Amino acid sequence: MAGGTRVRSVVAVIEVQELTKRYGDVTAVDGVSFRLEPGVVNGFIGPNGAGKSTTMRMMVGLDRPTSGRCLIGGRPYRDLDAPLRSVGALLDAEAIHPGRSGRDHLRFLARSHGIPGGRADELLEMVGLADAADRRVRGYSLGMRQRLGLAAALLGDPAALLLDEPANGMDPDGIIWIRSLLRSLAREGRAVLVSSHLMGELAQTADRLIVLGRGRVLADASVVELLTRNATRTVRTRTDQPERLEKLLRDHDAAVARRPDGTLEVIGPAAEEIAVLAHHAGILLFENVTVAASLEDAYLALTRDHARPLAGGSPR
Ligand SMILES: Nc1ncnc2c1ncn2[C@@H]1O[C@H](COP(=O)(O)OP(=O)(O)OP(=O)(O)O)[C@@H](O)[C@H]1O
User: Fold this and answer.
1) Do 142 and 241 reside in the same domain of the chain?
2) Can you tell me the distance from the alpha carbon of 167 to that of 154, in angstroms, rounded to the nearest whole number?
3) In terms of domain of life, where is this protein from (predicted)?
4) Domain interval for residue 162
């Protein structure tokens, strides 16, 4: 990829400071602060309507904050000398002019920013659109538009990337491709912010996760920290005396749920402690395993009470 080895002149640290956006009675973004460092993939995750897109739009000056600011290498986006070299953004893949070909779209953007036209062809190749480059964007699928949007975001070889749901509309191969692309962009020293409302899309890609709910940051931590702090360890235990074991565990302050097949799901004691208790009580265990805590569980636990009621429906 272009620019991988050269020293970057643009500082990629991005500081979002107390950003707030109100639309009438709705506070879409409510005092959001975070910092993006070079070389890190930051997952920006939250339920529908949490305020991810609005935050990202404000970061590049597409929406005006009610209060707060975003500084890119110490300056607001509008004051950057070469914005496309500082921040590449994919915010709305549908916004591309439908009558132009993919190649014309990129060449037009390149020309208006003083970037050589050859860079457009290089990027079309990289995002897998070389064969479709001369077709009108009108005929592109959503996944193809996302690829074109990504190429546009990368035109200026930017130090930071803001990508709003880039995997939306991509096929499984596309999703795998985008994961490895984001990792390699970060390895080259770029700061990456990538949003999704699906933890599965970010779990294997992000180093850090910024979790948003109802316009507020609920967590900003590394994937490992988030897992240890928020996921609950469960032990699955099977015995021929489930009633006795359940009572014994409850007497030792464990939370126990009995499943229809008779296995017990235990929250509290570790598998070793359960084995020792059962042994002393003369209860035989057929199975006693720790069920790995998933990032999805941690995310759900965090956002459970922070889904925004969506118009015409109940809170999700
Ligand atoms: N132009 C607007 N006018 C009025 N309300 C808006 C506008 N843009 C966003 N909102 C509201 O702000 C809130 C945050 O929306 P936003 O699109 O930023 O959330 P999101 O986290 O990106 O959601 P999704 O995952 O669904 O894309 C929502 O309640 C939304 O309805």
Assistant:
1) no
2) 16
3) Bacteria
4) 14-228
Domain identity same for 42 and 185:
yes
190 and 270 housed in the same domain: no
Q: E strands of 159-270, at which residues?
A: 160-164, 191-196, 208-213, 216-222, 234-239, 255-258, 264-267
Ligand 1 pocket member 308 (CB < 6 A): yes
Determine if ligand 1 sits within 6 Å of the CB of residue 23. yes
164 alpha carbon – ligand 1 mean position (Å): 13
213 lines ligand 1 (CB under 6 A): no
50 lines ligand 1 (CB under 6 A): yes
Kind of pairing, strands 285-291 and 234-239? antiparallel
201 and 101 housed in the same domain: yes
- Clarify whether residues 172 and 51 are in a common domain: yes
- φ and ψ at residue 237, rounded to 5 degrees: -130, 135
Distance 179 CA to ligand 1 centre (A): 25
List the CATH number of the domain containing 269.
Answer: 3.30.70
Same domain, 101 and 175: yes
Radius of gyration of the chain, Cα coordinates, nearest whole angstrom: 24
Shared domain check, 252 and 213 = no
Q: What tens-digit pLDDT sequence spans the chain (316 residues)?
A: 444 444 444 556 999 999 999 999 999 999 999 999 999 999 999 988 999 999 999 999 999 999 999 999 899 999 988 888 899 999 976 777 788 899 999 999 999 888 898 999 999 999 999 999 999 999 999 899 999 999 999 999 999 999 999 998 888 899 999 999 999 999 999 999 999 988 888 888 999 999 999 999 999 999 888 877 777 778 999 999 999 999 999 999 998 989 888 899 998 899 999 999 999 999 999 999 998 777 887 888 788 776 666 554 444 3
Pick the residue whose CA is nearest to atom 8 on ligand 1. Answer: 54
Strand-pairing partners, residue 71, are 15
| Residue 2 domain-assigned (yes or no) | no
How far does residue 195's CA lie from ligand 1's centre (Å)? Answer: 13
Ligand 1 atom showing the smallest separation from residue 53 Cα: 22
Which run of H or of E encompasses 114? none
